[in-house]
Amino acid sequence: MNDKAPVSAPVEQRTIEHVPVDERHGRARDLFTVWFGSNIMLLTIITGALATTVFGLPLWAGACAIILGNVIGGVVMALHAAQGPQMGVPQMLQTRAQFGSYGSLLVVVLVVFMYLGFFASNAVLGGQALAKVTGLPTNWSITIIGLISVVATIVGYRLIHRVTAFLSVVAGGALVVAFIWMVGVNGVPGGTWHTSGYSWAGFMATLSVAALWQIAYAPYVSDYTRYMPKDTGQRAAFWGTYAGCVLGSVLPMLLGVLVGAALPSDETLEGLSTLTRGVSTGVFAIFAIGITATNAMNLYCGALSTITVGQNLFPRWRPGAGSRAVTAIVLFVIAIIPALVSADDFLANYANFLALLLCVLIPWTAVNLVDYYLLRHGVYDIDSLFERDGGRYGKFNWIAIACYFIGIAVQIPFLSTTLFTGFTAKALGSVDISWIVGLAVICPLYYVLMRPKVAALAAQPAVA
User: Fold this and answer.
1) Which of 90, 272, 355, 408 could lock onto 417 through a cystine, CB 3.0 to 4.6 A?
2) Is 422 in a helix, a strand, or coil?
């Protein structure tokens, strides 16, 4: 586990093993660029456009819901990022400490599907943008976008950081140009600024989508802080990630809100192209490149999570760069199929995907944060995380597993999606507050049930 890996190697050699203190590098400001640059892309714009297209909000209400949702969800997300410098392991590996070595598999597998869902969604949008710029068939463009992401995943952590730092400048500049061109050069239709159509259901749905955008990063933000020096500190890691991810998400989402308010009956990409005519080719090309970087991050963390499952089943296995490469290629093949199939009805599928994803992520994030910050205060036995029987943490932690399923169950009555609306959500006028209920129930429940067990474990010798 502690074998030396060359820090300067062009291809990252480590996968899920603990990163020794003498191999740590980077600064908290690097976390800002990795999340700011990776969020400025077409999928973020599409997500913002849901406010004024799918949920029918006026521009002012959509903008308020987007900002508030990101600010709230970003707190949950960044609390996970702050764990990386302290632990030095990927987030999903650390989940073994809460759920047990085998109990964690359910959550890890669900997270892999989440990565694949975002990969497919990004690939569709990136492919459509590339096809618009180059004239290539959409399916070929989707495949090309995916293959570029695979290459970046194989090279690993350092390349991803460098590309996202570059995108922070280039994609950020393209975003500013898009705003200026839409409002100041081409202008937007007069009806863009209307104030009618507000509903609490639409506002809460938009707020939930924005919060989920942040919370969906929770299972892997610490994957990008685990190489940070331990003395980086939790506060610096928190604020570097929070500022980059929230600001990098809010700005393109607001662009999407504006596009949807201006041309609500158009497809968002068509609307963006119309409103930025004159510079649309350059804007689309840059945002398409941005998607390859973000998809590389999805695939990278999906590969780490998949390797976590494999190492759990085969504890003698010591995966390296080759294992990550093979895993990334397999995941790419699995993800690209739905991307090619669902390209035509992408928007409806994406909105439902987000709502259901939030339901299964909330209980996990509640358990993880309460366990790390309130019960164990960041002190874990790292060696036990790599033992098949879970070491100090066992194979199954039935308290965490029970809380996870209870967390899903209590949210169901409050869910409001096009696929399913719970009876409580109907009584509230289709307002979805399921994720708030999930956090409010599971955080205190897990704390009360788990506190005696943690106290008993704390009496045993531990390796921090």
Assistant:
1) 355
2) coil
> The pTM is what?
0.88
Nearest Cα neighbor of 385 from 83, 174, 61, 104 is 104
| pLDDT digit string, tens, across residues 189-224 | 988 888 888 998 899 889 988 998 998 888 888 888
Residue 421: phi and psi, rounded to 5, are -130, 120
Phi, psi of 111 (to 5 degrees): -65, -35
Residue 241 pLDDT class (50, 70, 90 cuts): very high
| Amino acid sitting at position 323 | S
- Going along the chain from its start, the domains and CATH numbers come out as 24-458 (1.10.4160.10)
Residue with tokens 């929230």: 246
Query: DSSP letters along 25-45, please?
Result: ---HHHHHHHHHHHH-SHHHH
Answer whether 50's CB lies under 8 Å from 207's CB.
no
Across the strands, what pairs with 92? none
DSSP reduced 3-state for 7: coil
Contacts of 247 (CB under 8 A, 6+ apart): 36
Between 352 and 167, name the one with better pLDDT. Answer: 167
Q: Containing H/E element for 412?
A: none
CA distance 97 to 375: 12
